[in-house]
Amino acid sequence: MATTTVATMTLDFTHDPARRSWIAAAQAPGGDFPIQNLPFGVFRRRGGDEAWRGGVAIGDQIVDLGAAAAAGAFEGLAGRAARAAAAPVLNGLLREGPAAWRALRHALSQVLAEGAPGAGVAAVRAALVPQADAEMALPLAIGDYTDFYTSLDHALNIGRLRDPANPLTPNFQWLPVAYHGRVSTMGVSGQRFRRPWGQVMAPGAQAPVLQPCGMLDYELELGIVVGQGNAAGEAIALDEAPSRVFGLTLLNDWSARDIQFWEMLPLGPFHAKNFATTLSPWIVTMDALAPYRVAWTRPAGHPQPLPYLESRANREAGALDIQLEVWIEPEGAPRASRLSRTSFRHQYWTIAQMIAHHTVGGCALQPGDVLGSGTISGPTPGEAGALIELSKFGREPVPLEGGGERGFLLDGDTVRLRGWCEAPGRARIGFGEACGTVLPARTL
Q1: pTM of the model
Q2: Is residue 154 among the annotated active site residues?
Q3: Which residue out of 15, 106, 154, 302 is catalytically annotated?
Q4: What is the mean pLDDT of each run of 10 residues along the chain (444 residues)?
Q5: C or N terminus of the chain, fewer CB within 10 Å?
């Protein structure tokens, strides 16, 4: 497959949908990890005291990058990148830059391909660890976390509940709104967290009370992993921004709505957002996502972006068509219920615009920083990315499979985010899942 480039989209042999791996599970129908994907994570064998280290998912296996590199599976820049990824976090790999990321992706695709020759195959085969035998960790040392608010449909859904006549804030259509979040309570899929406490002001009350959250919610988001940052005082230009991103994960920005409504007067979220944030363990690289770039549009009757947020490349291929679902599994329920499905292509602002705006004032981004995309909602009712939208502020609880309903989350509920890309003439690639479970509030 020849290399082709359209705006910010570059395709090469690694994207060939006919490409197959000698690992049979990589060809499993509906699987997340074919040879066209090759996402990065940090793992160790379950039940032992092995060191955490970087790996790449392929089918039902993980390639231990450090072990494969030590056995001579990679040469040159690819070998350097693999050795950098052998650490307990992937920040060292991120600092190597796009050329190294791409060299390692190419080398892995070649050595994992069906019919691959040479000793590299034996080295990689010896470095395989079944995913079923592994436990996963946060793949990054996350220095900073910024959460955006970039879905027009989400903003309208929330705004109409608050003020039907004026659902949008004046700035929403002019800039990617964001706040700085908390890193210390970010966790990997499987995270279990206690229902948070906070101040709540009941309607008509004269004073707030401290109590456990009664309106606990999830938010369907993507985590944008910064690969290459910028110096303080400098800005990242819009068309340069895509090359600064290493990849994407699933992200659940758990939210305590009753606490949030009281504390967001006049500043941003605090207790409502700092108790838990769950990420999927695998980072799908921007190279793997290249076939799913699509045009970004702004309706003609809406304000058009200021010049620093506008370019032809961003218009032609700034959006990504990533399919996303939210599932809920109540404790003891016979089966899970799908709550919503939508696509990331509906976002009002692109990833490049988020980064350009984040840095225009001189803010320094660093390798391993994570940006939340903001809740991802689509234009139809079944595409809402949070329960507060689906249940109309809890007034119209959502029915569940096998009985029951939810206005907001109950103790024991497990929420699973899933994501994947598929298109005619392209291989399906997936993100795995971001799973989290609500535990009862602690006793004060």
Answers
A1: 0.97
A2: yes
A3: 154
A4: 50 98 98 98 95 98 98 97 98 98 98 92 97 98 98 96 93 97 97 98 96 98 98 98 98 98 93 98 98 97 98 98 98 95 98 98 98 98 97 97 95 98 97 98 95
A5: C
